[in-house]
What does this fold into?
Amino acid sequence: MNIENATPSYFTAHGAAYVGDSLDLLAKLPDNSVNLVMTSPPFALQRQKEYGNLDQHDYIGWFLDFARLVHRKLRDDGSFVIDFGGAYMKGVPVRSLYNFRLLIKLVDELGFFLAEDFYWFNPSKLPSPIEWVNKRKLRAKDSVNTVWWLSKTEWPKADVSKVLAPYSDRMKKLLEDPDKYYTPKMRPSGHDIGSAFAKDNGGSIPSNLLQIPNTESNGQYLAGCKAVGVSGHPARFPAKLPEFFIRMLTDPEDLVVDIFAGSNTTGQVQGYRI
It folds into this structure.
């Protein structure tokens, strides 16, 4: 879909990338046209980054301006998925609640629904913040981001069967010989585990804890940046993160938008999928 009166920085057969003010560009999209907004905005960190990030006190109001437009542009069964990194309060080893305060405003003031809360665990993340983890050794390293899956209605389009996880070795053995490893009965927890538990569904239902290492230190994107003499984006999320939500929440021809595209990992994932 082309954005009215805007020229793409580049385009392919499956989409386009635009460089400009996200608020202006988003406003030019038709209302009720977007199936998924998948994005990772600048976080409200205390240390300023090259790509720009606001102070925690100003952050919520700033982001709500984008979210109001997203609500208008989403289809009724569309979704808004936001990756937020955690942060500490300035000068003290206690956590900021900016991402949780923002979530409440998105629901209470803008009318979004929290379809589900996800947590991205990056096991390869370096220990941080340095002051409280490395130097004074007062806190464990921060390696989990909150990922809010929001929707316009209580019934957004979704199909978790598109993102099934591989079965564990134990589950594979159970499927091969259910009678040897499993007896249908009521568990002490109250769950009634019936014979259908041994059915092969092609994979297991994933949890809302997404373990995805962010380990790419080179690759096509950075090679391209080097070739044209520009600096690469310093805070890219791994392709498997947007891929999970794109597969679960959209069909191949749906419109997926990243309003803080950075290196455009989201666009690359959607393009390859189509």
Observations:
- The chain has a mean pLDDT of 85.
- Residues 167-204 form one domain.
